[in-house]
Amino acid sequence: MPDVALAGDYEAGVDTAFAAAVGRHVIGSPQGRLGVETGVMALPDSRLPDLRRVFRAAQTVPASFTLWHAPGHALAAGDAPNAEWIGRLRTADALLLVVSGQGGLKAAAQRASALRIELAVLDLAILEPAQQRLEARVTSGPRVERREAGEQLDVVTRARESLEAERPLLEGLSTREAASLRGFGLLGAKPCAVACNAPDDEAAATDAQRAAAHQDDWCVIAAATEAELDDLSVEDAAEFRADLDLPGVASQRLGRALRCALDHVTFYTGNSRSVNAWLLPRGATALDAAAAIHTDLAAGFIRADAVAADDLIAAGSMAALRERGHLRRVGRDYEVSDAEVIQVHFSR
Fold first, then answer.
1. 315: phi then psi, degrees, rounded to nearest 5
2. How far apart are CA 39 and CA 102, in angstroms?
3. Which has the closest alpha carbon to 112: 16, 189, 9?
4. Burial code of 72-109, b = ≥16 C-beta within 10 A, e = fewer?
5. How far apart are alpha carbons 68 and 107 in whole angstroms?
6. Taking CA 207 as the corner, what is the angle to CA 19 and CA 39, rounded to the nearest 5 degrees?
7. What is the spatial distance between Cα 113 and Cα 152, in angstroms, rounded to a whole number?
8. How far, in Å, CA of 10 to CA of 25, rounded?
């Protein structure tokens, strides 16, 4: 379950965006000196009810994100943010930047750019002393350590130059080089989605602008109103959303943007007890899928059966697909595609 931190400026409405995302599913409120609030945002998934019927399962378990924020803390130009809060942000798997949508998408994009500049300033405060330490290590110590320090210095220097030129931190770095920066907890290296918190009467138009611009790692919410919909019946809540002319619930839009930013795919498992949706990084293998379910499955992995969820729903059962020869038997290195059902065979 990826850990996602919400951040924004003081005018963005981060508190209401968090409430709109997690509804009643707050699991930690508040914690520590920061007063961190934590909640679970389940991702609505239209395939789950159909898969439940296929497997005749007792329940469904959607994929989800863990979201958290620290009320009262914000990214504000010229103000030094709380160091403990920034340290906590550096541990997150991804960031969800919340910006005010007042004035439309163009104004929101300018606010998002300002937040990214603040993140870059915070990262430079990490990279500058790191560069100095590495420069010292390059000239002293065993040869192997000097060579390793030199390689790391090259990556850190290029990352710093990118930030100073207002380019993306990881621009021009290979996957291996980017991975070598992981220990620094750089905010600009994290997957980042943007939630545009628009006024009720601007939300639909702003979302149309977002869609036209193909900004799939953005979403539009009307946080103050949508945060209150959990208190209404399903019918009344749907009526309010229809008035806003926004597609689906807030968690659906937020989840889509986060999945895009993280570049994750969804896969499913099923039996008579439950049908579960899981998240995996794109490019992950059947062995990775087994490990996501349980480490024992990965340790004893033999093979997996893979099928597109829509094909399984159309066929009505795994047995029907097997009889038609449409069930693929795959090995540990098989790359899992989005919306596949995976059944792992393993030795106990």
1. -75, -30
2. 26
3. 9
4. ebbbeeeeebeeebbebbbebebbbbbbbbeeebeebb
5. 26
6. 20
7. 28
8. 24
Pairing type for strands 218-221 and 301-308 reads unpaired
Q: Which two tokens stand for residue 164?
A: 């100073």
For residue 210, give both structure tokens.
């977002």
- The more confident residue out of 337 and 146 is 337
Tens-digit pLDDT profile for residues 104-140: 999 999 999 999 999 999 999 999 999 999 988 888 7
Distance CA 175, CA 166 (A): 21
Task: Look up residue 254 and give its two tokens.
Answer: 């937020």
Give CA–CA dist 249/266, Å, rounded. 19
pTM recorded for the entire structure: 0.90
Do the beta carbons of residue 280 and residue 267 sit within 8 Å? yes
* Structure confidence by residue, pLDDT tens digits, 296-320: 999 999 999 999 999 999 999 998 9
Encoding tokens for residue 152?
A: 């790391």
Structure tokens given for 258: 């986060």
Q: How far apart, in whole angstroms, are the C-alpha atoms of residue 224 and residue 16?
A: 6
Is residue 330 classed exposed, middle or buried when 0-12, 13-18 and 19+ CB atoms within 10 A define those classes?
middle
How many CA atoms are closer than 13 Å to the CA of 88, on its beta-carbon side? 24
Q: Is residue 318 a contact partner of residue 312, using CB atoms and an 8 Å limit?
A: yes
Report, as an integer, the average pLDDT of 77-85: 83
Structure tokens at 20: 């709109």
The tokens for 175 are: 């996957």
